[in-house]
Write a structure and sequence with these properties.
The complex is a heterotrimer of chains A (637), B (250) and C (231). Chain A has 17 helices and 19 strands. Chain A is α+β, with helices and mostly antiparallel strands. Helices cover 72% and strands 0% of the residues of chain C. The chains are: A alpha+beta (637), B alpha+beta (250), C mainly alpha (231). Chains B and C meet through helix 6, helix 7 and helix 8 of B and helix 1, helix 2, helix 4 and helix 9 of C.
Chain lengths: 637, 250, 231
């Protein structure tokens, strides 16, 4: 397998401009002869489906929820970055590019990131035109805030529901095309396989979740925009139905999976309260502006937080990072919390939590000021935990949040399977080893609105292939495999729910392959995952049959894929023998506990190629060349 | 905590449904309502029974997927939250809890507590958008929008499309949902060009889907997890009447 | 005219008709009350007013038919909307709780039909003279139909007063929701004005109730009698 990034030559600033000119065009009359399948209806999928339909392509869009508006992009809170420089504070395309490359710990492709920064401006224009109600100043112009450690205010936001508003914008554009008949929307339909004919993606096999019917759909190209895989850790900030199935099954059909070990753990989430828990709720990072993080110095301190005197508290972030203090970056804050809890200093019943204390701020600024800033978050915290954060400190703990890894794509967003494109969180492209806040929404929309509409034309214009009928043997074979796989799940007839096994897997993964990883732990995990997988295939219970709406079957099929994918994640984490961004290998840290990169050996993308069941996948490498930025070490002392 | 649950079970759209009772025991007050159902479902699965089907996804109150009528109130007894944000500490141990799906002709039951809200999508496809080509938009700051208007637009745009308004309404009317979308565009200059067309198309589609009519009882406002106000319904009424009387449709 | 047909068929158009006919009927309720209150001016004022109405001749019939048509359209639209509303939820809830709605808003159909039924009774009593017929045929000393006598005699019957008061309670409940509903349906809703509208809805309904009930009450308790005083 050759990983050809197809990055255009020439100066960084003009690569995309020239590429847009160089790509072949499909004439308008011919566009309607091309059929495109879009799997996923979030920011990336929804915007791609709408835009391609608008151009005249015939689009089939699929989502497993009951409506395209439910995709998990909707849950993003903070905002979306764009290099508009409306604040006149020195922002520029280059600065956004540089911040993103640096934030990603120099593990992303320069050309892709630069393009992302370039189109960021168009995204805001587009969304405003769609009627997205961004926050505004009294003068009527758009408001911005700073976010995620950037030194400029470039984040556009719509209260704490930016993702929702952007998704509804994309959904409205998609709805218009559905109304025109240019997009055929398939809700409650889950993709279970990609179909290749002569090595090219020519369609997909899906299951109609209501009737249970297995169906094939053929097209000239297939776009996957199926999001990330954080629920491999079971508990995460993701929606409970987020899954790796689409991308993992594409991987099994030959699409290389890049950097699966790049996962982001968000430091401020409400901790696990018991083994009933199904998901973790994010509390905005902004809380760290006024909250102080601490744990008791004594491990078995049973006193209530406010009864513990000042000198018996360890404000560990302030102690370790005097200049950044409680505002240390996400990965560092997360790891420090884990260290404190590992040392037995954790708080709460589960002992996996640290205090985020607002007492000082309330004393200094008054309860009213704090309530104005964080009232809704305090309210949400109280609703979930039943505790009043004005009186006792919040308890927080890190939680898996975003996955930078994903299917490998070239500059055109095409995977290693010709005709299979991957957009948004599902691909690996723009965030390197760590994503900056407010960049995920930007990337999803950039891919869908402004990149794929150009690059897919290049593919169509250069490879004109007639549509393959769904009666083709490859479709029949894929349908057979999918049906067999579901039947296999139903046949196990054991005694455990797939959820309990998923939880077991997730606990192991979070423990050994979460915030901090080491060789021994990873090797051990690589041994344990197959055991859990065996347990699953011998003891899972999936009631009912496959001919009806059967949520237990859907869940079990997703868990089955997580059980295989988890191994790939650990394998990648083991092979990447360095620390970078969200991937922290304990063996590679500076004396101060900072991530220590090894640019000599690992300034590359690792993309895994599936070799078949029970065979080790092959690790391919795409070297990353930095022509415009200088690799440096991040420091937050 | 222990509860006696009475849950609507219905095999599929065309089958008859009925309430079935079951007990759940030893539930922590910190458990969310959906997690309580997870626990019950795991038990059902392990006992070889079919679990209760219910829609859910984000579990943080934003995706709009969850759709449970709990003791006669959509999303349960707490105000301004969805069922997924409801915790068992809002109930008393030993209490009877009735769980039913959204009930409306326009929301046919898919299975148990899960319903088909495709009618909402069709209303949106009829006119819930501002027609704008990708790439053709002017600079975002080219048209200033007064903060007050942007805020009103946002208040309406906060709708998560869950359908609790329909479920709570004694007439199963969708006016709050449709009104919210009409109101969002009404307060933005971007909505102006298609102002009349939009409201006519959306209301026609709404009527066609078989929702009931608004009789201004406002239970919808009471259960809306995003606390959308019936102001949006008045705005839609005005817009619709105005458009009906003055639209130059060809 | 296709658009007009479409408007009337639509849910919002139909509601608009409810609101417009409703407000027209509300206007009648006010006008009728102001006429009725002439009873406090004594037999002459009352009977003269009755004559002046009759003297309108054909115009009176236009008004009567207009009023009848308004009532029929109001009821017809309500029937249509109600049928659609019932159809919209074929399977009822096992448990259902009202969260924010008032009893008045939920019972518009019931209160409306009750008011309509009472109106028929009221006409039978005071217009057609089918009920308490003996009091309906009297003439006063100027040879006019003695409306005053008919009313006073009628309201000296306890059951007549009882029915009247009950009907007025129901009318007030109907109006209490109807008045604020009128504004909402025609698109007037503003946070600054809503509380005022809501309160004035209650206020106006209460005033109308008191105004109407003042007549049988004063008659029944002898404050208004056949000789301009106690009977």
């Amino acid at each position: 397998m050759k990983l050809d990034s197809k990055v255009p030559s020439g100066p960084l600033e003009t690569k995309w401009e020239r590429h847009k000119f160089d790509v072949k065009l499909v004439n308008p009359a011919n566009k309607r002869k091309f059929k495109v399948i879009v799997v996923g209806s979030g920011l990336a999928g929804g915007s791609a489906a709408a835009t391609l339909a608008e151009l005249g392509y015939e689009v089939d869009c699929f989502c497993f929820q009951d409506s395209p508006r439910r995709a998990h992009s909707i849950a993003a809170q903070g905002g979306i970055n764009a290099a508009k420089n409306y604040q006149n504070d020195g922002d520029s395309v280059y600065r956004l590019f540089y911040d993103t490359i640096k934030g990603g710990d120099f593990r992303s492709r320069e050309a892709n990131v630069y393009r992302l920064a370039q189109v960021s401006e168009n995204i805001i224009d587009q969304c405003v035109a769609q009627g997205v109600p961004f926050a505004r100043e009294y003068g009527g112009h758009l408001a911005n805030r700073s976010f995620g450690g950037a030194q400029v205010s470039r984040t556009f936001y719509a209260r704490g529901q930016t993702g929702q508003q952007l998704l509804l914008g994309a959904y409205s554009a998609l709805s218009q095309q559905i109304g025109r008949g240019q997009v055929k929307m398939h809700t409650r339909t889950e993709m279970l396989d990609v179909v290749l004919v002569d090595g090219k993606a020519r369609g997909i096999v899906v299951r109609d979740l209501v009737s249970g019917k297995i169906e094939s759909h053929s097209a000239h190209a297939v776009i996957l925009a199926t999001g990330g895989y954080s629920p491999v850790f079971f508990l995460s900030t993701n929606a409970v139905n987020c899954n790796v199935t689409a991308t993992y099954r594409a991987y099994k059909k030959g699409a290389a999976f890049a950097n699966p070990c790049y996962t982001q753990i968000h430091p401020t989430c409400i901790p696990v309260s018991g083994d009933h828990q199904s998901k973790l709720t994010l509390m905005s990072e902004s809380l760290r502006n006024d909250g102080r993080i601490w744990v008791p110095k004594a491990g078995d301190d049973k006193r209530a937080a406010k009864d513990i005197p000042e000198d018996q508290r360890d404000y560990y972030l302030e102690r370790k990072y005097p200049s950044f203090g409680n505002l240390a970056p996400r990965d560092i804050a997360s790891r420090s919390a884990k260290e404190a809890c590992d040392a037995g200093l954790g708080v709460g019943d589960s002992k996996r939590g640290v205090y985020l204390d607002f007492a000082d701020s309330i004393n200094r600024l008054g309860e009213q000021a704090i309530s104005q800033r964080y009232g809704n978050l305090f309210h949400m915290y109280q609703k979930i935990t039943g505790e009043n954060p004005y009186q006792s400190p919040m308890r927080i703990y890190p939680a898996p949040h975003y996955t930078m890894g994903g299917l490998w794509v070239d500059y055109n967003l095409m995977s290693t399977i010709p005709g299979l494109f991957v957009l948004g969180e599902a691909n690996f492209s723009d965030h390197g080893a760590n994503r900056l806040g407010a960049s995920a929404l930007m990337q999803g929309l950039a891919d869908g609105y402004f990149v794929i509409p150009y690059t897919i034309g290049q593919y169509f214009a250069s490879e004109f292939l007639p549509l393959v009928g769904t009666d083709h043997e490859e479709f029949k074979k894929a349908e057979g495999d999918v049906t067999d796989n579901l039947q296999r799940l139903l046949n196990v007839n054991g005694s455990r729910s797939s959820m309990s096994i998923h939880r077991e897997l997730g606990t192991l993964m979070f423990d050994k392959c979460g915030m901090a990883r080491n060789e021994e732990g990873l090797k051990d995990t690589l041994k344990k995952i197959p055991e859990i997988r065996d347990e699953f295939w011998n003891n899972v219970k999936v009631p009912g049959d496959s001919q009806c709406f059967n949520q237990a079957l859907e869940q079990a099929a997703r868990v089955a894929d997580f059980l295989e994918f988890a191994e790939l994640l650990c394998r990648d984490a083991l092979a990447r023998d360095e620390s970078c961004g969200g991937h922290f290998r304990e063996e590679h840290q500076t004396e101060d506990g900072e991530a220590k990169r090894n640019d000599e050996d690992f300034a590359h993308v690792a993309a895994w190629e599936y070799q078949g069941e029970d065979k080790e996948p092959v690790r391919h490498v795409e070297p990353l060349e930095f022509e415009n930025v200088k690799l440096s070490t991040r420091s937050y002392k | 905590m222990d509860f006696k649950l009475h849950v609507w079970r219905q095999k599929d759209r065309n089958s008859e449904g009925r309430m079935l009772s079951t007990k759940v025991e030893g539930i922590s007050p910190d458990t969310s309502f959906l997690e309580m159902l997870d626990i019950l479902n795991q038990r059902l699965i392990e006992e070889g029974d079919e679990p209760i089907a219910f829609d859910n996804d984000c579990r943080e109150g934003i995706c709009g997927m969850c759709s449970l009528v709990i003791n006669g109130v959509p999303h349960g007894p707490e105000r301004g939250v969805t069922a997924c944000q409801l915790h068992m500490r809002s109930f008393q141990s030993g209490q009877d809890i009735y769980i039913e799906p959204w009930r409306a002709k326009a929301f046919p039951v898919v299975r148990d507590l899960s319903v088909d809200r495709g009618s909402f999508d069709r209303i949106m496809a009829a006119g819930g958008f501002a027609s704008v080509r990708t790439g053709g938009a002017p600079d975002a700051n080219a048209v200033p929008i007064a903060k007050e208007q942007a805020d009103l637009a946002f208040d309406a745009a906060a709708c998560i499309g869950c359908g609790a308004c329909v479920a709570s309404c004694k007439n199963a009317s969708a006016m709050l949902f449709v009104g919210a979308k009409v109101s969002q565009f009404l307060h933005l200059p971007q909505g102006e060009p298609e102002r009349k067309r939009r409201v006519l198309k959306m209301v026609d589609q709404m009527d066609e889907e078989g929702f009931g009519n608004c009789t201004n009882t406002y239970d919808c406002e009471g259960v809306c997890p995003k606390e959308i106000k019936v102001r949006v319904i008045a705005e839609m009424n005005r817009e619709y009447l105005r458009a009906s009387l003055s639209h130059d449709e060809t | 005219m296709n658009w007009l047909f479409r408007l009337f068929r639509s849910s919002i158009g139909c509601k608009g008709i409810m609101a417009l006919t409703g407000i027209a009927l509300f206007g009648f309720v006010i006008a009728h009350l102001s006429g009725n209150l002439l009873i406090f001016g004594g037999p002459d004022a009352m009977n003269a007013y009755a004559v002046s109405l009759r003297e309108l001749g054909p115009l009176l019939w236009v008004m009567r038919l207009g009023l009848l048509a308004t009532v029929l359209v109001h009821i017809g639209a309500a029937m249509r909307l109600t049928r659609q509303n019932t159809d919209a939820r074929p399977v009822p809830y096992v448990r259902r709780q009202n969260v924010a709605s008032t009893a008045a808003s939920r019972s518009m159909m019931m209160t409306g039909l009750t008011v309509a039924a009472y109106t028929v009774f009221h006409l039978a009593h005071l217009t057609w003279g089918f009920i308490l017929h003996d009091f309906a045929t009297a003439v006063d000393d100027q040879g006019r139909h003695d409306v005053y006598y008919m009313v006073v005699k009628g309201f000296q019957q306890w059951w007549m007063v009882f029915l009247y008061v009950v009907a007025m309670v129901i009318l007030a409940v109907h109006l209490r929701h109807g008045i604020s509903s009128f504004f909402q349906t025609l698109g007037f809703n503003h946070p600054r004005w809503n509380p005022i509208l809501e309160k004035s809805g209650i206020g106006v309904a209460t005033l109308i109730f008191l105004g109407y009930v003042s007549i049988p009450a004063t008659v029944f308790f002898g404050l208004v009698g056949l000789d301009g005083g106690g009977s």
